[in-house]
Specification:
171 residues; mainly alpha; elongated
């Protein structure tokens, strides 16, 4: 059985990580729903947030990789923490089932569906708000982002994926 301190810390960490998951999911939907013309126009206003947004938007594949790496790292951490918490109370078999169910519900509702709806409904302002933090994530996770960016570009070329596949989402 997990100690009350471990349980409270695990629940608190899970809540913080769910907020991070919501951040990545809402950012992805918001940024990829913007018309390129709007992003270009905003970048001419002198708003530093719009300039950063344009820089991110100009390389949609790298932006997507940044958001997906961040979100997946966070979601795996959520699953790991919930597993440790549940394993303190249940044996291995039931732990897998309960952890899968609990994590799936939490991440789908609070880390994906509701945040994506928010991002879509508030795309312009939210994209400007999150542009600089996303740039910070991109720089912080740069080795991973660069690795996955390169690998996925090469894999896409091998399986004949159109290199401009992101273009419809950024026009």
């Amino acid at each position: 059985m997990a100690s009350p301190t471990v349980t409270v810390a695990g629940v608190a960490a899970t809540l913080v990580l769910l907020a991070c998951s919501a951040f990545f999911s809402s950012s992805e939907t918001a940024m990829f729903s913007l018309p390129k013309a709007w992003v270009d126009e905003q970048a001419t206003t002198g708003d530093d947030r719009a300039r950063v947004l344009k820089e991110l938007h100009d390389d949609p594949h790298r932006l997507l990789v940044t958001l997906l790496v961040g979100n997946n790292v966070v979601n795996v951490m959520i699953s790991s923490i919930v597993t440790v918490l549940v394993a303190g109370y249940l044996s291995a078999g039931p732990t897998v089932v309960v952890t899968t169910a609990v994590t799936s519900v939490l991440v789908l509702i609070f880390g994906e569906i509701v945040p994506k709806a928010f991002g879509l409904g508030n795309a312009e302002e939210w994209s400007l708000t999150v542009a600089s933090p996303i740039r910070l994530v991109e720089r912080t996770l740069s080795p991973l982002v660069t690795l996955f960016d390169g690998v996925t570009r090469r894999m896409s070329a091998l399986v004949s994926v159109d290199r401009g596949i992101e273009k419809p989402y950024t026009d």
